[in-house]
Amino acid sequence: MTPSPMDPRPSAKKNRIDSLAATAGGGTATAVKDVHVSAAGKVGDTGGVSLIASAWARLRRNPVFLLGAAITLVFVVLALVAPWIAPHDASKRIPELLDDLRPGAIPGPRDGFPLGSDEFGRDLLSRLLVGARQTLIVGVFATIFGLTGGLVLGTLAGALGGWVDSVVMRVVDVMLSIPSLLLAVSIAALAPRPSQWTVIIAIATVQVPIFARLLRGSMLAQRSSDHVLAARALGVKPQAIIFRHMLPNSLGPVIVQSTLVLATSIIDAAGLSFLGLGNSDDRQPEWGQMLGEAQRLIQDYPHLAFYPAICIIIVALGFTLMGESLREALDPKSRR
Amino acid sequence: MTSTSTSPSTHPHGRTGSSEPLLSVRDLRVTFQRQGQEPFEAVQGVSFDVHPGQTVGLVGESGCGKSVTSLAIMGLLPARGNRVSGTVSYDGTDLLTLSDQQMRDKRGKDIAMVFQDPLSSLNPVIPIGLQVTEVLERHRGMSRKAATPVARDLLDRVGIPDPDRRLTDYPHQLSGGMRQRALIAIALACQPRLLIADEPTTALDVTIQAQILALLKELVQDTGTALVMITHDLGVVAGLCDEVNVLYGGRIVERGERHELFAQPRHPYTHGLLASIPRLDAPRGQRLTPIPGSVADNLPWTHACAFAPRCSQPIEVCTRVMPELVPHEGRPLRCHNPVEESR
Amino acid sequence: MLRFIIRRLVQMVGVLVVLSLLLFLWLRSLPGGTVSAILGERATPATRAAMEKAFGLDEPVWVQYGKFVGRVLQGDFGPSTSVLPGTDALDIFLQRFPATIELSFFAMLIAVALGIPMGYVAARRRASFLDNASVVFSLVGVAVPVFFLAFLLKYVFAIKLGWLPVSGRQDGSLDATRVTGFFVIDGLLTREFDASVNALKHLVLPAVALASIPFAVIFRITRASVLEVLDEDYIRTAESKGLTNRVIRGRHVLRNAMLPVTTTIGLQIGALLGGAVLTEAVFSWGGIGEALALSFSRRDYPVLQVIILAAAAVYVLVNLLVDIMYAVIDPRVRTR
């Protein structure tokens, strides 16, 4: 972590991103030779083990990664099959529940409704199940948009350099200097009517500068690396160098960051809902939205907030555990 | 696995052959055990002696176990993930049996070490002066104030110009050669009787290398300090060491007094190392003869000669039976088919 | 050193200029714009035109930007439209600022006081049960939405157990004297010690909730950085000198390991501002975070402007101070 004496501006967010970027460039290009002893008495071929293969070998044994992956898998499967396994229609007010619903009394658990009703007489369990799907959509799209934006800016800056690099990075630095929730809230406020997509775009925007800096960092590191120089010396076209040699090698840190962003975007969506800037259409429930809405009633009906909160925490933890163990596994320094 | 220790004291060595050894390493073994991997024995029964004032070389290519040997002697191997056995007796005490605290009392005072990369081996955020005085404070019980002039003299002694100013400088403000001089000053601060230098010149420019070697030679001669020189560079050995141990695959394969070894290398590995050095006096057009392959080609010592796959003159027995370290023409040698010609 | 500070100051001004430009463009793109914000959606075209002229909105964009910057520099953000209608926006900000500073300070204190020692101990006992447990604990800390944690703490310790106050910064019945606006300090200054204690009790829950994320981040950075430093050659040199554990720990390990931690702390100030928005809302804290949430939901643009600009300025300023502190610790930056 000790910053190189070359960098006179040790700003932490940047440093963190840059040091993650520095773990790139290993990728598939670097093969570390393991000592290979052939017992047969011949000169054996020395087995080269790629970074990805050795990372996978270590991940497979890492309980933290396995737990994170298991949580993620369950979540994704749930999101896919939710409409079929949900006992009731999540968007419908159910007469049985409505009968007992009056101001100051929300029906609790009963036969056929293991978690009881929400404040409008809809089945809470079904809403949670269907919510998995919407939550996954928010997380995945926010990550994809953020990644795409960062990819474009970062690749432009890293590959072209010069004034493009300066301009892009100034804007990126300023965006990084605004606290991330504040930035998300500011973007969300621009929308005349909040919807699921304004939430996604607001969260994605916050991720753009992070991805951009990450990609630019690893691109710059690679531009002067031996395998890129070799490709250039061989006369490979610039586009081919960028897309075939540089981008693939930057993927490691990008995958790590994406995994972590999946977690934060779900949490941020809840924050936006809480501040009244979330999706106001609750026919297709989303956990963050459910949690945000439930805060109004939390003193009397804490369980309405509790269930979606637990879901968010577990899923966010799953993504984070996976991302952190990926980061550790892909870091060439931790291979010793 | 058969014991391979052959007492070196029965063989003639450097200029101080008659005295008791200062450091006596017997059957030193270091095994690394990493989670989920096969245990790897980096040092497989190494034995050698160092007599007071003697300079002994440990030579071999990277991965041969020479650095691990030095760290094991210093007690600096990480506590987890490795096993050390054998004996390392220093002045009659087996260092491997000492407690962490007792070892701390010895390190820096009786045995000191100089490392390979002088930039990364100095703490970047502490001034040079304090990095010298803290050893004196620790082992001599001096106050910082009393230690400062001593540190200044030490820096002066190792040839650092303007030592007063350098006391307050930080490592990044010094050149590579100056940093290595500072490390040497730190190592010699408490006048240890044994100094271990692990590739002290590898990270330096060629011209600086010569200066540092000359400095080391001068210092050990003046103070009577014994020196264990760890290197892959036979040029360093030739200029400095009284006795040379050649390591291959975690074992000593040949040992000899410097001149003997250079004049008549008996092990094909030693021979190959010498043959791969470019020589100015070689006839024009003569090609260098590198050793083929790499350490990765090694056979296990248990039932073969580890060097056999890379050897220039293997015979059938080499891939079946491990050669022992036995005297050959008066020098310990581990080879079934020694090189007979002289260079 | 002086040149270093001046260079950082120049960079800071650059960031603020770009920031003001972004803020200006952002304000212009808010739904309905300034005029609708003041007049409401149903204003007649005539009144709109008059209003636009009054606000100079018919002038070219760069003139408007110039005037905007001029007003900002004079601290003239205009009166609040809906949070406290008629009150000067800057006054609202200044009045609420100490509350947020006090909360953030205590939250950071908790995060640092727990995060650094725990990170150090976890690193020294790498892969032990203690290490794994504290890593998982810190990851859970990140996965829990801040406002939910705030609610949970409030629900358990204030509402159910009644150990700590439910909301606010101090009991109104105390009628404590105000000097600085920092209630704990005010109590000490005026020797109304009961007022200080009362304010501290109010601080506990929101500060703990707000500390959760910075704690997790500081813990993980400390752990990673100590692990990295322990692996450095100069620690081996220190060991080879036979130095005592105490000297190696304090002088060699901690000092180097604190470098990245320092910058992280500066960065977390930004995360604190984001978290404060959510935490303050839960505890009716009366700080700028609460005002920000209110002004977003009520679209009070003058208040929004001043808070966002001030938050970014504080953030940039804090990071400048952190960089200077970094230079004090790290001679490589200082003596370039």
From TrEMBL, chain A:
GO cellular component: plasma membrane
Lineage: superkingdom: Bacteria
Chief location bin: membrane
InterPro entries: BP-dependent_transpt_permease, MetI-like, MetI-like_sf, OppC_N
GO biological process, one term: transmembrane transport
Compartmental location: Cell membrane
Assigned keywords, A-Z: Cell membrane, Membrane, Transmembrane, Transmembrane helix, Transport
Residue ranges crossing the lipid bilayer per the database entry: 64-86, 136-164, 171-191, 197-215, 254-277, 305-326
Ranges where the ABC transmembrane type-1 domain occurs: 132-323
Membrane topology value: Multi-pass membrane protein
Similarity field: Belongs to the binding-protein-dependent transport system permease family.
Name of the protein in its database record: ABC transporter permease
Automatic annotation (TrEMBL), chain C:
Cell location: Cell membrane
Entry-linked InterPro entries: BPD_transp_1_N, MetI-like, MetI-like_sf
Domain of life where this protein originates: Bacteria
Source organism of the structure: Knoellia aerolata DSM 18566
ABC transmembrane type-1 domain ranges (all copies): 97-326
Transmembrane segments: 9-27, 103-123, 135-157, 203-221, 257-283, 303-329
Coiled-coil stretches: none
UniProtKB keywords: Cell membrane, Membrane, Transmembrane, Transmembrane helix, Transport
PANTHER family: DIPEPTIDE TRANSPORT SYSTEM PERMEASE PROTEIN DPPB-RELATED
Record keyword Transport present: yes
A GO cellular-component term linked to this record: plasma membrane
Record's protein name: Peptide ABC transporter permease
Transmembrane found in the keyword field: yes
Topology in the lipid bilayer: Multi-pass membrane protein
Gene3D superfamilies in UniProt: MetI-like
CDD domains to which the protein is assigned, alphabetical: TM_PBP2
Annotated GO biological process: transmembrane transport
Entry similarity comment: Belongs to the binding-protein-dependent transport system permease family.
Taxonomic lineage from the root: Bacteria, Bacillati, Actinomycetota, Actinomycetes, Micrococcales
SUPFAM superfamilies hit by this protein: MetI-like
